[in-house]
Amino acid sequence: MQAAAHDGGYVLVFCFPHATKPAMDLILRHANLPDGRRDIDIGIRDGRIVAVETALAATAAEEIDASGRLVSPPFVDAHFHLDSALSLGLPRLNRSGTLLEGIALWGELKPDLTREAIARRALDYCDMAVAQGLLAIRSHVDICDDRLLAVDALLEVRRQVAPYLDLQLVAFPQDGLLRSATAQDNLARALDRGVDVVGGIPHFERTMADGAESVRILCELAAARGLLVDMHCDESDDPHSRHIETLAAQSQRLGLHGRVAGSHLTSMHSMDNYYVSKLLPLIAESGVAAIANPLINITLQGRHDTYPKRRGMTRVPELLAAGVDVAFGHDCVMDPWYSFGSADMLEVAHMGIHVAQMTSQEAIRQAFDAVTTNAARILHLDGYGLAVGCRANLVVLQAADPFEAIRLKATRLYVLRGGRVIARSPARLSELDLPGRPARVTLQSGHGA
């Protein structure tokens, strides 16, 4: 038996080197689960969850005592741009803070990009992600550079990180499928090389009609190839940007239910309620999912407003109430569009709660789902979750429940992939020197030590 210091006390890690082979490889003891169950043991064997129950009567080669902390499946980022991540300041900073200046900056940078630099930054970001318990990312990759440098770089990154992170790539025509002369050919080439998902950006085409036509072309391409679809859709303050309607209609026409996502959908924050009352059932009926990006939406949108100033994010509570799958994405970290970020999906959920005023306990749980289970479902991740048979990809958080995890943006004490600990962090703990007060504080309510 070994004892390891943890959170001012000890976590017992049991080893049985000479005994009969234990029934399991690892048991997490005394865990709280996101659905409210408490004091649950999770048994793991051969990289899979084989037991989820109270007082599991089994031995294991290793045991970790969660001590009433939250154990969750890993975080999932449903919308990101890995090719531009960590490029802040290249070639210069975004002075206006607008979406369009960010696109212009990326266009200036593209001629100077190298495959090696893209891959290096992407791998650095994946390291950050693992440390944060983020083990699945859907990344859009710009295909409007005829060299397809970013595509080749991220395909190689996907290969390298596969043992510890699920990376799904979207062929993204940043400059517009029809607006860019070579985009259609480049997109097909990217898919032929192994990119997973068909992307688009209809609101950036030259006309509304071109935008609608691009949606039709891309959805038909996805249907023909049997691929998923994820389009940047209506990332605008213009209430007349209504390409989500076309995306839903094409999904319905082509039988793509459950395979299509509309990302951003920010024009919905400016649409009149009567039109939205028609639009929401259409989205739900078509099986199109919605991916909001709270950190970026609140930063980039509403830039032309004085006051009243629009919030920028799509109608998350209304979409959820209509039965639409909703996930949150980080979108950007330290790039031409956003200077901040640290691969922390709890920060994303935290902002989403504030922007959408999702302050009820039920809504807070929905925000947690938006960066875990909902996002995993939209990405069609295999074996994700906490049920018996699921892959033993787990995060132990320094929090008792999802509310506390989001409130504190809780430390990831352990990150497991296939039942193996691949990252660990010391508990957050402050030592105080105050007369008559606790010597240690963890910021958890009722958890002063």
From TrEMBL:
GO terms for biological process: cytosine catabolic process. InterPro entries: Amidohydro_3, Metal-dep_hydrolase_composite, Metal_Hydrolase, Metallo-hydrolase_Enzymes. One of its GO terms (molecular function) is cytosine deaminase activity. It comes from Tahibacter aquaticus. CDD domains: Bact_CD. The lineage of its organism: Bacteria, Pseudomonadati, Pseudomonadota, Gammaproteobacteria, Lysobacterales. Keywords: Hydrolase, Metal-binding. SUPFAM superfamilies: Composite domain of metallo-dependent hydrolases (SSF51338), Metallo-dependent hydrolases (SSF51556). PANTHER family: CYTOSINE DEAMINASE. Residues 62-422 form the Amidohydrolase domain. This is Cytosine deaminase.
